[in-house]
Amino acid sequence: MKIDKHLIKQLFVFGIVGVICFFVDYGFLLLFTEVCKLHVLLSTLLAFVIANIVNYFLSMKFVFERKENFNRLAEFLIFFLFSVIGLGLTELIMWLGTGVLAWDYRLVKIGATVIVMVFNFITKKLTISKS
User: Fold this and answer.
1) Strand, coil or helix: 66
2) Whose CA is closest to 104, among 40, 48, 45?
3) Of 36, 51, 67, 99, whose CB count within 10 A is highest?
């Protein structure tokens, strides 16, 4: 079995970008929930949006090779479409974990991040990346 070194490197860099964006997301979640006293679901939404803006710029610079002759606005919209779907998954997981199972939101957020990270890589690799 041949190992695709490009894919391994891409996954590694995606992981680094993901870790950076996780801390952006998690930091804003704590800020909005603990300091601003917003509801955890609203905090999750706001933090996710901020983290995804950062994620778009880092991903397109360091992770994904842009398709030639691909409209940048379309690229941005596709990226964010899948991010919104990921947000829906995140919100569902947060609701189930905190509202139904009564688990600590900080732990639920970590699990949601892992699931949504896998979803994001696969969907964005298949749609916006050249290779």
Assistant:
1) strand
2) 40
3) 51
| 3-state secondary structure at position 129 | strand
What's this model's pTM, rounded to 2 decimal places? 0.74
What's the start-to-end Cα distance of the chain, in Å? 20
Rounded distance, CA 101 to CA 82, Å? 27
What 77-84 contacts at long range (C-beta under 8 Å, 24+ apart), as own/partner pairs, is 78/124, 78/127, 78/128, 79/124, 79/128, 80/52, 80/56, 82/119, 82/120, 82/123, 82/124, 82/127, 83/48, 83/52, 83/55, 83/56, 83/120
Q: Distances from the Cα of 4 to the Cαs of 7, 60, 75, 126, in angstroms? A: 5, 20, 25, 16
CB neighbour list of residue 106: distance below 8 Å, 6 or more residues apart: 26, 30
pLDDT 10s digits, 75-118: 888 998 998 898 899 989 999 999 999 999 999 999 998 898 88
Residue-wise pLDDT tens digits, 30-49: 999 999 999 999 998 899 88
